[in-house]
Amino acid sequence: MSDPNQDDVRHLETLDRDLGRFSNLEIAASYIARPIVGPGLAFVFVLLAGLAAALFFGQANNTLIVVMAACLGAYMALNIGANDVANNMGPAVGANALSMGGAIAIAIVFESAGALIAGGDVVSTIAKGIIAPEAMTSAAMFTWAMMAALLAAAIWVNLATWIGAPVSTTHSVVGGVMGAGVAAAGFAAVDWTTMSAIAASWVISPVLGGVIAAAFLALIKSRIIYREDKIAAARVWVPVLVGLMAGTFAAYLALKGLRQLVRIEFGHALLIGAVLGVAVWAATIPVIRRQSQGLENRNKSLKILFAIPLVVSAALLSFAHGANDVANAVGPLAAIVQASQSGDFTQAVSIPLWVMVIGALGISFGLFLFGPKLIRMVGGQITKLNPMRAYCVALSAALTVIVASWLGLPVSSTHIAVGGVFGVGFFREWDAERRLRKARRAMPDRPSYSREERQRRKLVRRSHFMTIIAAWIITVPAAATLSGALFWGITRLLG
């Protein structure tokens, strides 16, 4: 006769084994399903965008075309959120001033606000003058060219996100429009002067952003970090830098982010920035004095003083980005809507509100679902960032846009921000080498590093540097080639 206690023990052991199998099965199923959750939700959003287009556009002969264009615009917006927004939030996350969740939340709010409040930009029907309007012989040809351009740009940005390369969505759209225009009307239809200026921005944007970011890092090192009393130096210079940041962003938003609410001339924008910058500088002095009380005289204490200004600058960059770059996703869509409604594709178009909502929500969903990969790459895998270095990158991004606007140069916000990250990294390498040479002169008997050891101590990861530069160079030709092929395929398919 069996012991009831032993039967209970065996029963519990069997139950534990069964529960363990179910637990392992659940873990395995979760592991398999996790990679498809993001694409699945993105696909649902694209379908909802098409449904919204059908509801807003109503019953018309071209409703199906507008629905298809809305789906492509939503797909492009998702990719902008996944790739472009990382440039604004990456430095703050890499410097540990923001958690990944906090960065995504701030970016979603400010990207959407920028897109909906100040993003109703008026865009040329043939996307910023890349293609001459008279080159398109019919509204149907124009519509299919814009479709091909939008799809090609979205596919290219999607591919770049997958390989971990931050690319310019503006350049992707420009390349797409150029490729479709060439396929539709030949090389003579392209405004090569505009394309030359865009090609020049491949070099100008990152170099200018990197130089300005490195200059600010040099200022912080010489005036604060290398001083005997770091805290006393910070009490003087941090308010100056915060005031400069406030003034720069005020001018930046006046020029770029709020141009649809009120038109502000360049000189007036600078005046607004100067007034606000002085006011913020004066208000920040007592705040920094209180915040610095009791801090130890070391570099770690300085990070505390830069953390909040860095978060604010990231939020402002997101607002300006939403105001400007949402047109990359929905500009061609708005042009298709107008061409489908009226048959007119030679005039400038205003982006309707429902189209703007698709762009704003798409950027937010793309950031939430796919953004962390690029945020981590920009923030921590190119070079090591702390709040001071990340602050230099954010300030450089705003200043570079203002300088470029003054000089009349087309620039890419992506190239500027990533160029700023490279700039602070290469400056740190140069500064470390300079200090090492100085130490050797002071102590000639000190052993020197081998070439392999010096190579290992490089502060910028060369593999990421080469990947990103290569992606930048081929963005326009790759998007153009893909767009031309898509346009050819669409027109052949439709007969």
UniProtKB/TrEMBL annotation:
GO molecular function: phosphate transmembrane transporter activity
InterPro entries: Phos_transporter (IPR001204)
Pfam families (alphabetical): PHO4
Transmembrane spans: 36-57, 63-81, 93-119, 139-160, 172-190, 196-220, 232-254, 266-283, 304-323, 351-370, 390-409, 415-431, 465-490
Keywords from the UniProt entry: Membrane, Phosphate transport, Transmembrane, Transmembrane helix, Transport
Record's subcellular location: Membrane
Membrane found in the keyword field: yes
Tree of life domain: Bacteria
Gene Ontology, cellular component aspect: membrane
Any Gene Ontology biological process: phosphate ion transmembrane transport
Coarse class of the protein's main subcellular location: membrane
Keyword Transport: yes
Name of this protein: Phosphate transporter
Organism: Roseovarius spongiae
Classification lineage: Bacteria, Pseudomonadati, Pseudomonadota, Alphaproteobacteria, Rhodobacterales
